[in-house]
Amino acid sequence: MSQHARKNQLPDYLRAEQERIEAIARSYGLDFFRTGFEMASYDQMNELAALGGFPTRYPHWRFGMEYERLSRSAEYGLSRIYEMVINNNPAYAYLLEGNSLTEQRLVMAHVFGHVDFFKNNFCFRATDEETLGKTVDAGPPRRDYEPIRRWVDRFANHGARIARHIERHGMDKVEAFIDHCLSLENLIDPWEAFRGRVSPIGDADDEAPIEVPRLAAKDYMDRYINPAEYLEAKRKSLEADRERRKRFPEEPVRDVLSFLLEHAPLERWERDVLAAIRTEAYYFVPQMQTKIMNEGWASYWHSRMMTEKILSASEIVDYADRNASILATSPGQLNPYKLGVELYRHIEERWDKGQFGREWEECSNYDLKQSWDMRLGGGRDKLFQVRSLYNDVTFIDEFLTPEFVVAEKLYTFGYSGKKGDDVIESRQFRDVKEKLLFQLTNFGNPVIEIVDANFGNRGELLLRHDHQGVDLQRDYAQAALEALVRCWRRPCAVATKLDKKSVLVRYDGAKHTEEPYVA
Amino acid sequence: MALKIDQDHARFRHIVRGRIRQNLRKFISKGELLGRKGKDTVSIPVPQIDIPRFKFNSQQTGGIGQGEGDVGDTLGNGQEGPGKGKAGQGEGSHVLEVDVSIDELAGLLGEELQLPNIEPKGQSRIRDDAERYTGVRRVGPESLRHFRRTYREALKRQIISGTFDHERPVVVPTPVDKRFRSWKTTSAPVANAVIIYMMDVSGSMGDEQKDIVRIESFWLDAWLRRQYKDIATRFIVHDSTAREVDRDTFFRTRESGGTMISSAYKLCKSIIESEYPPDAWNIYPFHFSDGDNWSMDDTLACVELLRQSLVPWSNMFAYGQVESPYGSGQFIKDLREHFRGNDKVVTSEIANKDAIVESIKEFLGKGK
User: Fold this and answer.
1) Do the Cβ atoms of A413 and B65 come within 8 Å?
2) Does one domain contain both B267 and B248?
3) Share of chain A above pLDDT 70, in %
4) Confidence (pTM)
5) Which residue of A63, A173, A294, A424 to mutate against B (max B Cβ within 10 Å)?
């Protein structure tokens, strides 16, 4: 890193710029980690982006593919990466060589917004290394909050370790295993960090005969007070309870990766690789949970800082042009920058004018609502509170209003077989919100958990897909099962619904089957 | 500057190469690569290489958009670019276009068909002179003065003559000390090669037949270009008379009328005689026809031409017979009969596009 850093040092005029913008950001109340900027050429930028922002990672072809795609689209002028920032303490951000000064200022302002978000949003508490991924306190950070987040080092360590395994076991073997692990990468529990340890409940002695507690009764009353049928039924339910406890795992497990780490017959190097990939997957969870909020927050602040303090009049047009391209919308795609920044502004306005609370909710007079202004001026404080305590799901759930949906022209679309294309389905508030929340829940991944690790008493792994109206994609599911079998080394199956029928999609190491299944 | 990602990128290219190789036969017989040919590269659509995960069926998910439009309007977005987990309508819509150089493609072809490398015939008399600065001499222009050697000579002389002063180590070269770089001329034989394509364009050769010839000649070209540094190509079309054309016309011409194969062979012979002395050139005549020659006399004339000149001159004489609904296809039988045991004459029957691969193998499998 140090050599890299020397080579990519900021020129003096940008360093001065950084100090100026940093001071402005602090004056607005933003609270961020120390942030280091580095210069990167197009090639380096594409490389870094392909590697997810980290200068050193484990070797894998997927990064090469991403690099090819990025450099291709950069060549054709389709896309250009302006900004990249890593959630690390101190934070690292990259500036693209050859950007104009206005653009560099824009990026810096934007980056400070992100770093403030990294530091203060509760989701990112899960990336504090000193708590080992366990976060008990999700409240606002203390004044002297300086967590250990040395993820750049950690990712580099993963890289070194996996490189060593490759040296020992061969590229093909290790890479194939990494492919399998990556296939399972999304089978993690996004709330893992905020869950306490579950201690095993119940008495340890499972072998003792079951005694059904009886009500005290005199001998001659006993058969009326404790009837034999009741005792029998009670005994059965206790037995079932005990059976359930014998089941493994006792409770369904969302974090499939850690289950495999603990229980699958893996070799040591395989365990190490899987552990590294799991750690990295968890690192990216908060960023996926707060995409809209994070980008919106950074955009909100860059536009405030740029227009109020940073820019001179001559730069405004240039800035407006850049800003417009960042916030541009296109059909069929939601721009998280745009949605986020508009929603923040909406919130700020509502809280400034006091458009919240019971009185507001219950008011049905349209005109009154239009001109509602209690001059509370609490918008700014509310914004800082929101950025600390919400994630995308709760953010949308709480602050998306019908007025906002109309003003922002949001709609839902779906695939129409008749037209062979995506078609606008609805502009109703309810539909939009529902779809948006669905998309954000579990960041658009199906919820899948392990329910039985000894399925059919044959040591097979049974997963359950919590079907919410959308099927799994069959071929992908089958391929993912193959990866699972590779780790578990026994047949694996997932219970789901396909074409409205409950089925068990199973792979036994040789062939794929599908059979009707009722749990 | 070398990037760390280069290793991953090379690895990715390696995987892509594997994919292309897997599908090479399909690519060859479909001929779809030819339309995507750039100057030195071909862009190949590779089915998406992806890491499979449990994910939603994209046709059922739909998504959220922002902007104008009424309910029921199509969005008409081909779903390009990095969507943030949004819907796309097709599984196959993410096709990766990969640029592969024709040379690399020929290499893949060679690996896939296990083609042997070609050994250029004999020692070519054409030699190429190359000049390299390897030596040192005492005379020469100032611009070629070898500073270090000159200095050393001067130092040696001063030490021997005792004029060198350790306290004041000044070395002054005189004209005798001067050394100059000099060159040596080396000459190496150069393997030159020419491919002469001949094609029957008589009425019985339809578009499909010509397409087969086009695809096949692309691959023959690619392979031979990999084997020889410089390669010339000539094109002859014939019906009952022959004429030389350029590449474009070669694949476009459509004549009607009869077929006199000997006319093409005669023209081929005169081209070789006048421009490509056989002892200096590796010569590859490829002839494609549907095998329906005008008369037996003409066939005999062809055999005579081949036996006297074309076959002895060439590294290999290749005849590909494309099956057509018309035509007897007799010519290949005649050739086989007259040149039995002569491994310089290679014949191949190409029934349809799927047979192209095998035919390429027959032509190039001997390493000539």
Assistant:
1) yes
2) yes
3) 92
4) 0.75
5) A424
